[in-house]
Structures are given as structure tokens and as C-alpha cells.
Amino acid sequence: MKQYTPIDFTKVDINGGFWKRRQQINRDTTVYTVERRFEDTGRFATFRFDWKEGEPNKPDIYWDSDVAKWMEAVAYLLEKGPAPDLEKKVDDLVDLIVKNQDPNGYFNVFFTVVKPEERFLHRTDHELYCAGHLIEAAVAYAHATGKTKFLDAMCRYADLIEQVFVKDRSAAFITPGHEEIELALVKLYRYTGEKRYLDLSKFFIDHRGEDPEEQYYGHVNGRHCQDHLPVREQKTAEGHAVRAAYLYAGMADVAYETDDQTLYDACNTLFDNIVERRMYITGGIGSEAYGEGFTLDYDLPNKTAYNESCASIAMIFFARRMWMLNADSRYADIAERVLYNGFLSSETLDGNAFFYENPLEIDPKLRHRNTAMKDTTARFPITQRVEVFGCSCCPPNITRFMASVGDLLYTTSDDTLFVHQYIQSSSAFDWAGKEVKIAQDTRYPIDGKIAITLEGDGLNGRKAAVRIPGWCKEYTISVNGAPFSGTPEKGYLYIPCGDGKTEVILDFVMKPVLMEASSHVQEDAGRVALQRGPVVYCLEGVDNGDDLRALAVDRSLALQEEYDEFFDGITLTGKGWRKAPSKELYAPVDDSLWQEQTLKFIPYYGFANRGETEMIVWIQAR
Amino acid sequence: MKQYTPIDFTKVDINGGFWKRRQQINRDTTVYTVERRFEDTGRFATFRFDWKEGEPNKPDIYWDSDVAKWMEAVAYLLEKGPAPDLEKKVDDLVDLIVKNQDPNGYFNVFFTVVKPEERFLHRTDHELYCAGHLIEAAVAYAHATGKTKFLDAMCRYADLIEQVFVKDRSAAFITPGHEEIELALVKLYRYTGEKRYLDLSKFFIDHRGEDPEEQYYGHVNGRHCQDHLPVREQKTAEGHAVRAAYLYAGMADVAYETDDQTLYDACNTLFDNIVERRMYITGGIGSEAYGEGFTLDYDLPNKTAYNESCASIAMIFFARRMWMLNADSRYADIAERVLYNGFLSSETLDGNAFFYENPLEIDPKLRHRNTAMKDTTARFPITQRVEVFGCSCCPPNITRFMASVGDLLYTTSDDTLFVHQYIQSSSAFDWAGKEVKIAQDTRYPIDGKIAITLEGDGLNGRKAAVRIPGWCKEYTISVNGAPFSGTPEKGYLYIPCGDGKTEVILDFVMKPVLMEASSHVQEDAGRVALQRGPVVYCLEGVDNGDDLRALAVDRSLALQEEYDEFFDGITLTGKGWRKAPSKELYAPVDDSLWQEQTLKFIPYYGFANRGETEMIVWIQAR
Asked: What is the residue range of B189's domain?
């Protein structure tokens, strides 16, 4: 199993283009939106540990993790520039954490102020999940600021967890019901060099599948928590999609650090199952709201798609770890699919509000219906993004991920620098003791032209491997002004670097393409989706009138491309059709009911930014 | 409002052809299947009124109605021939009813042996619904046998209901939560001539919408019980579909008997709403399981379609009453749609097992899935008919309806005999004091040829009006051997009768037609259904392999018609296509993946008779 070294976002300066604009919104708006809502809902105040029964804002089992993700986001923002107000806020929180941490290292708000007698008793109550996010935040904050108070506290907590779970075996369960700590412990190991944290992560992974089923609450079963089998025997992605993808990311981390082929094989099998059978074209995963989880192969309903925003983020984490293990572009292709669609859709274009769920079709009538019963089991997602949710895992996850998106660009092997994602940026880093500089100049994904400049001693005699995106069927490449031809290997084109500056000009031809799903996907049978580059498109009622299922795009794809500032992307406008309703509910097929209509497609990620309206991805073509 | 007089099934001898075979199975098998299961589940025993708390087979609130419908079925069978075993069983039940009836006339098993203190307190507990079915059975049994013991008992009960609800107003509610008694009371009025029963029915109809909402249990609201508005203000069919259609049938009865134009108008509006916006192509109504009810206009999902068998029957009741009020073929067209599809599908071809729900698409994987949670809100109907349900309203309803299907053939006005349905039969009846004989010789719906022979003094100078089915675009008619041409009026072609025998030969050309739904119906967008005559077709996995959504019928409709004894119908076999799955889950549209495949279509009513398998009605065409 060959390994690749990641270049993390701290070494990547996103200095313009699409992602710079996204990150600016994140820094200027999103992180403060989340902060404000966390203030309002008492999430920060809860760290004072003075909540009393009967008071409002009762801490919930996952609140620590919400706050931790926000703290982690602040740390990432601090890597790129000062933000004294935010840093002060985190410092204050760290003080509270240290002040309220148990002498034995334990730290959890819910299990201290609400149910102090029930620590490590309830598998599915997010206790270790919260610990994981606190650990991630502590590592990030130490790296960003050099301050180790938080990190030291979390090391003590991790040590306690090792004591309780591994040495004493005194917890009521063996492995967490909501995974996350696995990948967090690997981060802690990498930062501190303390192998016991890696061992603890491996312990939680290796012992999965051993807890008895009855440890779960009510409707949850082992499959929900990826506990139905030992992880190396799991062949299909099951259960809660966020837990699953965090687990798989952790498994990939441990495979990477321990050179564990069986774990790597399991990761590959699970990755394949997801991307070949259980993922939406938007990269969303988790097709059912109830259980927030995977269901069956090819069971991908559009209107009720769950596709939690956190699952999109977790899926990118998983994909990134896989490309650290294997230089195959399928991982970066999938990360790109998620990134430009299911991830970006999770917040408004202005960064002020969020989706927890990201469906592929919206009919507001169904959401708001008031039918024969006071409540109904037919559940449809909300139609507009909101500032906060009761369970608010997604908003801080979005802001921390957005701040660290530079993680997705590069890895190195002994002799090759891999370019996984195309994002305007400049980077400088050390490669086996020598300096390397790489810059990308691009409007991607608005167009497919990327100018890559490589220089530095580190590159001399080595190669750059650029990903040919899976969506791209036509491209040209020049190297130092001369056309370059070569055959991609597992999706990467390897370009030798000389001893001077190497200039690579990539031109991936971007034009609208009619996509279809595998014929195994029942929900999309006979329907198409429009994609341009990595961006999936949708129609909205506000542009095209309601009853979007009655629309068909013309197969000629006579569509005008236009840059639209509001969407910061290309809209596609052109020839389409609308089927007028027949006079009777059922009648012989009548093609004369098709009337030409101009259709306007917008990037899927921009849906629901102009009021409540119908939306659809999979439409008819004729 | 012109009125038409129905010729009921007792005067119609179904003497061969498709429906004779159905009725024979009903007489030989179905009525006994239901009897046996009612024995096994203690439904009959409960009429001994000796059940004690803690014993098995605790009576449920609707058991009286189950048994009553079976008794009514026996009465209808007795109209057509002796069945001493069945008659003895009913006589024994009648003895128990009379023995256990309260001195004041009250009769209800549940509210005597389980909750005797709670009579007339619980609106939604089916008390008056049970009374309605008992009244219907009593009328039927008196007519069939001349024995009036049961009828007399039910008259006493109806009198008590009048006393409690109208005179004393001592019940805790004004109108029933589950309608049915309305139409039953009109039957009682017609049979006894006692106008107070008609008045009581009218009372229940006129006062609908006056009960306070909080009288309903848990999840049920006023809309569920058609109690959200006074009936004359209701514009859309809402709530529980069976309750709704029984109510509408009762409303039409009262409109008929009282010449109430406002009530008739309401019926028409509701009928239109159903058939133009809320009905499946199979005639099924009630698109959602939760609440067993109507949802929104054009909201007609196929896999989760509820389409209760009882709702199909109730819809035919409603349609029949509408054609007694207005000689417009739309009512008989709709009854025909239900009859040959959603009604017939409700039992196995051998008459031994039943569907409560009649979906338009089945994927057994979805029904049997075991996903992230122990239970799941995504609910899919059972895939195979069963002998009995906990709530077993449908099986006895099916057997009573099948025995009385001859009700659907004829009405008369002053000068016209209307032929609404085409069923092999002979009839003789009195028309304004003179005899009329009418016979139909036909294989309908196997083919569209019907020879109608009319004779008798009653016809002299009058007309026969034959329905030109809505599905039929091409037909020939001859009268006494000579071609007959005329323009149908509201779907009926009026044929003058001479003083001798009149022979009408109808030939409705039956061939497969590609049908589509209104483009407002999202679920069927871009899909077609095959229909031949009144019969809707489906594909099953057992004939065509799984993944039925990947199939497309060829638009040429190159299909071979073949009579199949197993289905007692025409199967259609011919050119179609299967889209092979693409290598990747999502890929550019690739028409080369279409591979020719012979498809075999069977009548929808015959689905799920050959083991568990996929089924689909709405497919692709190319």
C-alpha cells in the first residue's frame, strides 16, 4: 500500500477566484452567524457548567461538539489571518473547559450538569463523539496559535478515555455509538507523536461489531451505528451516513498510519459501494431521513433525499484520506462531485443560513400539505435554509470545512506531486528537504482553464500529476508552451518537471452534458440531469414556472452559457419543452401537448436562494 | 334533476362470460374463505356476547361490520340460488343478534361486551358504521329470504339511533366518524317505506361539519372524517377514502330521494375532484397509507399508493348513484375503470386471498428492507394477497360486491333504458307496468363485441341508450343487422326500439393504447401505461426480469394479443427495450445501452398471482 503525504491547507493560500470568494463569506459572515446563533441558544453559556434543571437552554448531548466545531473553525481562520474577537471568544471557552474539566480529565457538559451519574453508560449518547470534536478543535487551536492549554486538557481527557475503555474496560460499551473520535485521535497522534492515541483509535475500530445489539436506544440498531459486523467484514455502507463516513475516514487514517492492508481493503469496498450504488449525483449520501442513513443499493429518491450536509463533509474527508492511500482519481473525482454540489448547497450564497438536508427535488405543496391526519409519515425536507437547527451539527461543520478546503489540493509521493483539485491558490512547502512552489490560476469551476506554475529545487527530476476530471471527455494540455500528450494513469497525467519553472496550462472543455443514472436507479429512470464541469444543474419554479416535472430539456442542448454574479456561476438558458396538462387525468399519449419553452438552469448549489419555489434536478429530455 | 330508476342485480342473471366465472369463484370459494377466517379469528363467536377480558379474540370496534358484510354477501348469493349451509349460518347469527340485542334496540358487540358504559361517546369508534352494515345486511337478508327477524331487529336499532341522535340529542357527537350508515338508512327507507329512516340519513348528512374538532382521537382530524366543512361546502375529496366515498354515495342517495339540487351539486363537485385529480389510472383512490386517505390534487405516488379495496368498492357505489341522477357516461366510465382494475386486483384470481392496498408498483426489496432503524417511516404495501387482515373490512366487502355486480348494468328513465356496463347476462323486469327483456352476449372485456337483444312491450316506442366507453375511439354499431350511426349524447348513443325484437351489435375496437397521465401528475411524468379496452396492464418481474423501471415499451406497440386462461384475459407480448446499467452510477446519456427485449404485459388485476415479484404500471416508452 503506497502512501502519499498530504499538503495541508495551512500551506495553501487561496488567493482569488471562486473559493476565495466562498472563504471570504465564511470569514466575514458564516462564522459570526453560527456564533450568534450559538449565543442565542445558550450553547456557549453551557460551558459555564451552571445550568440548572428548569432553566431554558438545557444542554443537549451533542452541544459540546457544536461548539468544538466552531472553535475548530476559528482556529482554521486564525491560520490565515488575525481575528482577535474570535480568538478571544475561543480563549474564554478554553478557560471554561479547563476550569470545568474533572480532575481525572473528563469533560462533557451534558454528562456533568444534566446526568453526571451516567458517564460512559450510554453508547448512543454522543459522549465520545463530543470528545472527538473537542480533540480536533484542540489540535487545530494549538497549531494555529501555539497555545497548548486546550490541547493539554484534551490529552488528559483522551488519556482518561484510554484508561476507561482499554485498560479498565469499565465503560458500559466498547466502541462509540456515534463515530468521530477515531479520526480525531489520529490527528492527536500526528500532532503529539503519542502512539497511544493511534492505538486507541485502532482499538475503537478493531472492536467495532462486538457490542451487543441491545445497547442501542429505541429505534436504533447495530446497522445504524455501523456495528452490525466487524469493520473488515462490512461490504456495504449502512446506517447513519455521517457516522459511517466519519468511521470510514478514521479507518483510512489507521490503515495509513499502520499500513493495514485489510483495513484499506475494507475502506475501498465501502467507498465503492457508496459511489457506485448509494450516492446522489450531487454527491449527497444518506437517502432516508428516518435514521439519517443509507438504505439499499440504488434506492435514491429525490424528493425525500436526506443528504445531510455533515455527511457531504464527512464523505470528502473519507475521499481525501483514500487519495492519501492510492493515487487513483476516483477519490478526488468524488470529492469534487460532493464539493461543488451537495456541500455547496448546504448554505445560502450569502453564507447566512443552512440546510441540514439537501434534497434533489422540492415541491413546497408536499412539504406544507395538511392532509387527512394531524401528522403524516410522508416526510419532506424544509424548503428554505435556516440559521440554526435544534440539532445544529451542520452549520459549524460547514464553516470549519470551508476554512480548510485548501486541504484538498495536493499530496506528494517520493517522486510525484499530485494535483487533486483545481482551486486558485499559491503554495510553498518543503518536499524531502527542498522547497517547492506551486500556483494555480483559474476561474474553475466557472471555466475549465487552469494555469499551474511549478518551481523550486524540490521538483527537479520529479513529476507533477494532474487529475483529468472524470467528467471531462475533451481537454488540451500544454507544458511550457508546447502541447503535451500522454495517457492518464488511473486518472492522473504525469508531467516531468525540469530544473526551472514548469508552466502547465490545462484546458478542460466545459460544456453542458446530459447525464443519466444507472438504469438500476428507479427514481431517475427515463430522466436526465444537466451537468457542466463538476457542477450539477437544476431548474427552479421561480425561473421556469411550477410543475417542473412537466418540463423537458431539448436533446440538442441549445443552451446559452452566461456568468451570473448572484450564483457566482454559469447559468444555462435555452430550448426546452413543457407538456401542457391533458384535459382528462388519463388519456392516450398526445405529443401535441408539448409546447416549446425556454428553460433556465442554475447551479444546483444555488437553489432556494430566491424564496420558496419548486426545484428539480432530474428532468425529462426530448 | 332528472332521475333514473336502477334495475338491481336480483333482476340480472349473469349467465356466462367473464363475470359469471368471477361470480362462480365468489360463490364456490371466496364466501367460504372469508367464513373460515372469521371462524378462526373469533369474529362469529363474538356474537355470542360471552367474551371475557383476558380471553383471546377480543372483539374490535369494527367486527360487527365485518360479519354484517359477510351476511349481506350470503343474502346476495341466496338471491341467485340455494346455499343451505350459508343460510343456516346466517340464521344462527340472526338468532344471536336478536337474543343479545338490548331491550331498547341497541346492538353492538364491542360496546356491550368490552366497553358497555361508553356507548355513543366515541365518534371515531365505528359504532354507527357497524350499525350501517348491519342494516344493509338485514335489508338484503329480508329481501333474499323473506325472513324479517333480522330486519325487525335493525329497525328497532335504527329507531333507537334516531331517538338518541335526533330527538334526545343525548349522544356525545352529532354525526358518525366513519360514515356508512347514511347510505344504509336510505336502503332501509326504500325497503320499509318508513320516511324517518331517510330523514335520519339526511340528518347525518346535513349536520356534518358541526362537531368540534377535538372529538377525534389522536392523529385524526376533521378532514379525515369529511367533517371539516358542511358537505355542501366541500369542494375537494378529503380524508379517509372509504369514509369519503361512502358519505358521497349517501349524499347522492339523499339527493335522489329528496330532489336536493345543492346536495347533487356537491356530489358532482366531489366526483369531479376525485376523477380529475385524485384517482389512479386503476381507479384506486386514497394515495397515502397514513390516514388511508386522499392527499393533494395530482399527488399520486405509485409504490406507496394505498388504494384500499373498500375504497374501490365505495367509489363504484358513488358512481352508480351518480348515474341514477344524471345520464352522463363519465360515471359509468369511472365505475368501469375501477371495476376492471382496482377492484379486481383486490383478490387473487382463485378468490382465496385479498389485498387491502392496491399499489401500482411493487419492489419487494423496498418492502422487506432492513435499514438503519428497527422500524422505518418509509412504508411500502405488502406484496402478496393474504387471507385475512387484523382489520378485515375488505374481504367480506369484496364478496358482497362481487355477488351484486349485476347492479351496475341498467337504469331506466321514462323513455330510455340505459345500458351502463357490458356483462354477459339476461334480464327481465317490469317497466312502467310492461315487461322488458334484455340480454347481453359478450366476452367483454376480453373483446369489445356485445350483442344486445331487447324485447318486450315495455320497449315499444322507447329507446335503448348504450354507453360508448370513454376508452373507445373507434366502434361500429348495427341495429337489426343494419349499420347504425348517431352521435352520442353525454357518452350514450340512443337507439330507438321497435315493437319487435331489437338486436344491437356493438363492436368497440379493443387494442392496446399508450396512456399518459396529466402532466400535473409528477409521479408519472415521462411515463406511459398500457391499456386495452378498460383493462390497465402491468409488467411483472417473473415475466420480464427485475428492474422493471429500466424497461420501455416500443412506441410501435408491436404487441401480440393472446387469451390466457390463468388471467382470464388478454396478455400482450412484443417489442420492448431494456436499458442496461451504465458502468458508472452517473454517466452521459448513452442510448446504445438500450437493448431490445420482448415484454409481456398482463392485466393489472392479475398481478401478484405467481409469487412475490416486481410489478409496474407506469413505464418508459421509446
From this structure: 41-207
One domain for residues B418 and B323: no
Considering the domain architecture, whether residues A610 and A545 belong to the same structural domain is answered as yes
Percent share of chain A, pLDDT over 70: 96
**Tally of domains in chain B:** 4
Annotation says B612 is catalytic: no
* CB-CB neighbors (< 8 A) of B239 in chain A: 371-372
| pLDDT over 90 (residue B223) | no
Helix (H) or strand (E) holding A201: helix A195-206
Q: What is the mean pLDDT of chain B?
A: 95
Asked if the Cβ–Cβ distance from A290 to B369 is below 8 Å, we say no
B370–A219 C-beta distance less than 8 A: no
Considering the domain architecture, whether residues B529 and B448 belong to the same structural domain is answered as: no
Instruction: Please check whether residue A131 lies inside any domain of the structure.
Output: no
For residue B472, give Cα distances in angstroms to B35, B280, B513: 40, 19, 10
Residue B12 lies in a domain: no
- Sort out which chain A residues have CB atoms less than 8 A from B587's CB and list them: 515-516, 518
Q: Answer yes or no: do A528 and A432 share one domain.
A: no
Q: Phi and psi at residue B278, in whole multiples of 5°?
A: -135, 25
Highest averaged pLDDT of the listed ranges A307-321, A386-400, B288-302 = A307-321
User: Cβ contacts (< 8 Å) between A369 and chain B: which residues?
Assistant: 295-296, 299
Tell me the C-alpha distance between A552 and B313, whole Å. 38
Query: Distances from the Cα of A229 to the Cαs of A212, A221, A268, B370, in angstroms?
Result: 11, 12, 16, 15
Q: Give the residue carrying C-alpha cell 339511533.
A: B161
**CATH code at position A424:** 2.60.40.1180
- Give bridge partners of residue B562 from the DSSP assignment: B571
Q: Where a domain ends, among B207, B239, B263?
A: B207
Write out the catalytic residue numbers of A.
Answer: 292, 393
Cell of residue A586, nine digits? 388519463
Domain identity same for B174 and B150:
yes
Q: Report the C-alpha gap between B454 and B468 in whole angstroms.
A: 18
Instruction: Give residue A525's Cα distance to chain centre.
Output: 27
Q: Hey, how many other C-beta atoms are within 10 angstroms of the C-beta on B53?
A: 7
Contact B519 A547 (CB under 8 A): yes
Q: Would the CA dihedral through A88, A92, A97, A99 be positive or negative? A: positive
Confidence grade of residue B582 (pLDDT, cut at 50, 70, 90): very high
A477 domain residue, yes or no: yes
Query: Which residue type, as a one-letter code, is found at position B526?
Result: G
pLDDT value at position A215? 62
* B70 & B86 share domain: yes
Mark whether B558 and B597 lie in a shared domain: yes
**What pTM, to 2 d.p., does this model score?**
0.95
Last residue of a domain, one of B370, B386, B406: B406
Range scoring the smallest mean pLDDT among B99-103, B207-211, B234-238, B296-300: B207-211
Contacts of B188 (CB under 8 A, 6+ apart): B135, B138, B139, B154, B155, B158, B194, B197
- The reply to whether B497 belongs to the active site is no
Q: What is the mean pLDDT of residues B372-387?
A: 73
Q: What would the pLDDT profile of A459-478 be if each residue is shown by its tens digit? A: 999 999 999 999 999 999 99
- In 3D space, the residue among B612, B566, B619 whose CA is nearest the CA of residue B597 turns out to be B619
* For residue B174, pLDDT beyond 80: yes
For residue A488, the model assigns a pLDDT of 97
Nearest CA to A254 among A237, A243, A244, A267? A267
**β-sheet bridge partners, residue B576:** B553, B597
Residue A469 lies in a domain: yes
Predicted confidence (pLDDT) at residue B214 exceeds the cutoff of 80: no
pLDDT, tens digit, 9 for 90 and up, residues A262-271? 999 999 999 9
B373 pLDDT tier (thresholds 50, 70, 90) = low
Burial (Cβ within 10 Å: 0-12, 13-18, ≥19) of residue A475: middle
User: Do B194 and B228 fall into the same domain?
Assistant: no
